[in-house]
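Support reply, case 0932

Customer input (verbatim):
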Amino acid sequence: MPDDETQLAPPQPLLRLIENLARFHREHEEYYSQAPLRQAGELQARSRALKSLADRWSDVQAGEQTSAIAFAGTEELNAPGLAAASGILFMEGEGEPAELRTLKREVGLLADDNEQGGAWLAQAMEQAWEIAGGLAAYPALADLLGERHRIIANDWQSAGMQTLVARLLRRGLDLLARVDFSPAALRADLRGERKAPAYLYSASELFDRAADLIAESATLVHENERRWRMFRARVRELQRVGQRPRE
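Our regenerated output:
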Protein backbone atom coordinates (compact mmCIF):
# COMPACT_ATOMS: atom_id res chain seq x y z
CA MET A 1 0.00 0.00 0.00
CA PRO A 2 1.32 3.47 -0.78
CA ASP A 3 2.20 5.57 2.21
CA ASP A 4 0.32 8.77 3.10
CA GLU A 5 3.08 11.02 1.70
CA THR A 6 2.84 9.36 -1.71
CA GLN A 7 -0.93 9.72 -1.73
CA LEU A 8 -0.63 13.47 -1.10
CA ALA A 9 1.86 14.03 -3.95
CA PRO A 10 1.13 14.69 -7.61
CA PRO A 11 1.77 11.76 -9.96
CA GLN A 12 5.34 11.30 -11.17
CA PRO A 13 4.73 12.49 -14.78
CA LEU A 14 3.28 15.75 -13.44
CA LEU A 15 6.19 16.12 -11.02
CA ARG A 16 8.65 15.67 -13.89
CA LEU A 17 6.88 18.39 -15.84
CA ILE A 18 6.83 20.76 -12.88
CA GLU A 19 10.51 20.09 -12.16
CA ASN A 20 11.36 20.85 -15.79
CA LEU A 21 9.46 24.14 -15.67
CA ALA A 22 11.02 25.14 -12.35
CA ARG A 23 14.53 24.41 -13.58
CA PHE A 24 14.44 26.03 -17.00
CA HIS A 25 12.23 29.00 -16.17
CA ARG A 26 14.39 29.83 -13.17
CA GLU A 27 17.41 29.95 -15.50
CA HIS A 28 15.44 31.98 -18.06
CA GLU A 29 14.43 34.50 -15.43
CA GLU A 30 18.01 34.83 -14.20
CA TYR A 31 18.77 36.34 -17.59
CA TYR A 32 15.74 38.62 -17.54
CA SER A 33 16.61 39.90 -14.08
CA GLN A 34 19.87 41.31 -15.52
CA ALA A 35 19.53 42.09 -19.23
CA PRO A 36 16.78 44.72 -18.75
CA LEU A 37 19.04 46.64 -16.35
CA ARG A 38 21.53 47.12 -19.18
CA GLN A 39 18.70 48.24 -21.46
CA ALA A 40 17.52 50.73 -18.84
CA GLY A 41 21.01 52.18 -18.52
CA GLU A 42 21.37 52.55 -22.28
CA LEU A 43 17.96 54.19 -22.52
CA GLN A 44 18.86 56.65 -19.76
CA ALA A 45 22.03 57.56 -21.68
CA ARG A 46 19.93 58.35 -24.76
CA SER A 47 17.58 60.42 -22.63
CA ARG A 48 20.50 62.38 -21.21
CA ALA A 49 21.71 63.14 -24.72
CA LEU A 50 18.32 64.62 -25.59
CA LYS A 51 18.35 66.70 -22.41
CA SER A 52 21.84 67.99 -23.21
CA LEU A 53 20.63 69.22 -26.59
CA ALA A 54 17.49 70.71 -25.08
CA ASP A 55 19.54 72.52 -22.42
CA ARG A 56 21.83 73.92 -25.10
CA TRP A 57 19.05 75.03 -27.40
CA SER A 58 17.07 76.61 -24.58
CA ASP A 59 19.73 79.31 -24.02
CA VAL A 60 22.03 79.61 -27.00
CA GLN A 61 21.53 82.30 -29.63
CA ALA A 62 21.11 81.17 -33.20
CA GLY A 63 24.06 81.98 -35.39
CA GLU A 64 24.81 81.75 -39.06
CA GLN A 65 26.64 79.06 -40.92
CA THR A 66 30.12 79.41 -39.50
CA SER A 67 32.04 77.71 -42.28
CA ALA A 68 31.71 77.21 -45.98
CA ILE A 69 33.50 73.93 -45.55
CA ALA A 70 31.10 71.01 -45.42
CA PHE A 71 31.23 68.82 -42.32
CA ALA A 72 32.50 71.61 -40.06
CA GLY A 73 30.82 71.47 -36.65
CA THR A 74 28.02 73.93 -35.97
CA GLU A 75 29.18 76.08 -33.09
CA GLU A 76 25.87 76.80 -31.36
CA LEU A 77 23.95 73.58 -32.02
CA ASN A 78 26.40 71.11 -30.50
CA ALA A 79 26.09 70.59 -26.76
CA PRO A 80 29.46 70.68 -24.94
CA GLY A 81 30.92 67.21 -24.56
CA LEU A 82 28.00 65.47 -26.24
CA ALA A 83 29.86 64.43 -29.39
CA ALA A 84 32.44 62.59 -27.28
CA ALA A 85 29.78 60.97 -25.08
CA SER A 86 27.23 59.97 -27.71
CA GLY A 87 28.70 60.66 -31.14
CA ILE A 88 25.93 63.17 -31.92
CA LEU A 89 27.51 65.93 -34.00
CA PHE A 90 25.73 68.63 -35.97
CA MET A 91 27.73 69.63 -39.03
CA GLU A 92 27.44 72.44 -41.55
CA GLY A 93 25.94 71.42 -44.83
CA GLU A 94 24.46 68.25 -43.36
CA GLY A 95 21.02 67.21 -42.18
CA GLU A 96 20.03 65.26 -39.10
CA PRO A 97 23.08 63.62 -37.47
CA ALA A 98 23.36 59.91 -38.21
CA GLU A 99 23.71 59.19 -34.50
CA LEU A 100 20.30 60.71 -33.80
CA ARG A 101 18.75 58.52 -36.48
CA THR A 102 20.45 55.53 -34.86
CA LEU A 103 19.16 56.59 -31.44
CA LYS A 104 15.58 56.72 -32.70
CA ARG A 105 15.91 53.41 -34.55
CA GLU A 106 17.28 51.65 -31.46
CA VAL A 107 14.51 53.07 -29.28
CA GLY A 108 11.99 51.81 -31.82
CA LEU A 109 13.50 48.32 -31.71
CA LEU A 110 13.40 48.40 -27.91
CA ALA A 111 9.71 49.32 -28.09
CA ASP A 112 9.07 46.38 -30.44
CA ASP A 113 10.93 43.98 -28.16
CA ASN A 114 8.98 45.10 -25.10
CA GLU A 115 5.63 44.94 -26.86
CA GLN A 116 6.27 41.43 -28.18
CA GLY A 117 7.82 40.23 -24.92
CA GLY A 118 4.98 41.64 -22.85
CA ALA A 119 2.33 40.02 -25.04
CA TRP A 120 4.08 36.64 -24.93
CA LEU A 121 4.59 36.78 -21.16
CA ALA A 122 0.99 37.78 -20.46
CA GLN A 123 -0.27 34.84 -22.53
CA ALA A 124 2.14 32.47 -20.79
CA MET A 125 0.96 33.64 -17.38
CA GLU A 126 -2.68 33.01 -18.36
CA GLN A 127 -1.75 29.37 -18.90
CA ALA A 128 0.48 29.20 -15.83
CA TRP A 129 -2.32 30.56 -13.66
CA GLU A 130 -4.66 27.76 -14.75
CA ILE A 131 -2.02 25.08 -14.20
CA ALA A 132 -1.15 26.44 -10.76
CA GLY A 133 -4.80 26.31 -9.76
CA GLY A 134 -4.86 22.61 -10.55
CA LEU A 135 -2.00 21.98 -8.14
CA ALA A 136 -4.33 22.80 -5.25
CA ALA A 137 -5.61 19.24 -5.54
CA TYR A 138 -2.31 17.97 -4.08
CA PRO A 139 -1.84 18.70 -0.37
CA ALA A 140 1.89 17.98 -0.58
CA LEU A 141 2.28 21.27 -2.49
CA ALA A 142 -0.31 23.27 -0.58
CA ASP A 143 2.17 25.30 1.47
CA LEU A 144 4.05 26.38 -1.69
CA LEU A 145 1.06 27.45 -3.76
CA GLY A 146 1.43 31.00 -2.46
CA GLU A 147 5.03 31.05 -3.71
CA ARG A 148 4.04 29.68 -7.13
CA HIS A 149 1.23 32.19 -7.55
CA ARG A 150 3.54 35.02 -6.47
CA ILE A 151 5.95 34.05 -9.25
CA ILE A 152 3.11 34.22 -11.74
CA ALA A 153 1.86 37.53 -10.33
CA ASN A 154 5.33 39.07 -10.58
CA ASP A 155 5.75 37.91 -14.17
CA TRP A 156 2.27 39.08 -15.07
CA GLN A 157 3.00 42.51 -13.62
CA SER A 158 6.28 42.55 -15.53
CA ALA A 159 4.36 41.79 -18.73
CA GLY A 160 2.11 44.79 -18.16
CA MET A 161 5.13 47.00 -17.54
CA GLN A 162 6.71 45.89 -20.79
CA THR A 163 3.56 46.80 -22.69
CA LEU A 164 3.53 50.25 -21.08
CA VAL A 165 7.24 50.70 -21.82
CA ALA A 166 6.53 50.15 -25.51
CA ARG A 167 3.79 52.80 -25.44
CA LEU A 168 6.01 55.34 -23.68
CA LEU A 169 8.88 54.80 -26.08
CA ARG A 170 6.70 55.12 -29.16
CA ARG A 171 5.07 58.28 -27.87
CA GLY A 172 8.51 59.73 -27.20
CA LEU A 173 9.50 58.91 -30.78
CA ASP A 174 6.31 60.63 -32.00
CA LEU A 175 7.44 63.79 -30.22
CA LEU A 176 10.91 63.60 -31.71
CA ALA A 177 9.38 63.20 -35.15
CA ARG A 178 8.00 66.74 -34.78
CA VAL A 179 11.51 68.18 -34.71
CA ASP A 180 13.45 68.91 -37.89
CA PHE A 181 17.02 68.23 -36.85
CA SER A 182 18.71 69.83 -39.83
CA PRO A 183 20.94 72.78 -38.80
CA ALA A 184 19.00 75.24 -40.96
CA ALA A 185 15.65 74.28 -39.41
CA LEU A 186 17.05 74.30 -35.88
CA ARG A 187 18.51 77.77 -36.33
CA ALA A 188 15.17 79.00 -37.62
CA ASP A 189 13.50 77.52 -34.53
CA LEU A 190 16.03 79.17 -32.22
CA ARG A 191 15.21 82.53 -33.79
CA GLY A 192 11.51 81.88 -33.33
CA GLU A 193 9.45 79.98 -30.76
CA ARG A 194 12.11 77.46 -29.69
CA LYS A 195 9.78 74.49 -29.91
CA ALA A 196 12.54 71.93 -30.37
CA PRO A 197 13.81 72.03 -26.75
CA ALA A 198 10.28 71.47 -25.39
CA TYR A 199 9.77 68.40 -27.58
CA LEU A 200 13.17 67.01 -26.58
CA TYR A 201 12.53 67.51 -22.87
CA SER A 202 9.15 65.77 -23.09
CA ALA A 203 10.52 62.88 -25.14
CA SER A 204 13.37 62.41 -22.68
CA GLU A 205 10.93 62.35 -19.75
CA LEU A 206 8.97 59.57 -21.42
CA PHE A 207 12.19 57.67 -22.04
CA ASP A 208 13.16 58.15 -18.39
CA ARG A 209 9.88 56.69 -17.18
CA ALA A 210 10.26 53.78 -19.57
CA ALA A 211 13.77 53.14 -18.21
CA ASP A 212 12.41 53.17 -14.65
CA LEU A 213 9.74 50.61 -15.56
CA ILE A 214 12.29 48.39 -17.30
CA ALA A 215 14.37 48.37 -14.13
CA GLU A 216 11.30 47.72 -11.95
CA SER A 217 10.34 44.83 -14.23
CA ALA A 218 13.78 43.28 -13.78
CA THR A 219 13.43 43.64 -10.00
CA LEU A 220 10.12 41.78 -10.03
CA VAL A 221 11.65 38.92 -11.99
CA HIS A 222 14.66 38.86 -9.68
CA GLU A 223 12.35 38.40 -6.68
CA ASN A 224 11.26 35.06 -8.13
CA GLU A 225 14.66 33.39 -7.79
CA ARG A 226 14.26 32.10 -4.23
CA ARG A 227 10.65 31.07 -4.84
CA TRP A 228 11.63 29.00 -7.86
CA ARG A 229 14.40 27.37 -5.80
CA MET A 230 12.04 26.43 -2.96
CA PHE A 231 9.41 25.11 -5.34
CA ARG A 232 11.88 22.96 -7.25
CA ALA A 233 13.40 21.57 -4.04
CA ARG A 234 9.97 20.38 -2.87
CA VAL A 235 9.18 18.80 -6.21
CA ARG A 236 12.49 16.94 -6.28
CA GLU A 237 11.87 15.64 -2.76
CA LEU A 238 8.44 14.38 -3.80
CA GLN A 239 10.03 12.70 -6.81
CA ARG A 240 12.46 10.86 -4.54
CA VAL A 241 9.64 9.77 -2.22
CA GLY A 242 7.64 8.43 -5.15
CA GLN A 243 10.62 6.48 -6.45
CA ARG A 244 11.33 4.64 -3.19
CA PRO A 245 10.73 0.90 -3.44
CA ARG A 246 7.49 -0.10 -1.76
CA GLU A 247 7.69 -2.68 1.01
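We compared this against your earlier run and they match. Two observations from our side: The two ends are 8 Å apart (CA to CA). The chain is about 75% helix and 0% strand. Please reopen the case if you see a mismatch on your end.
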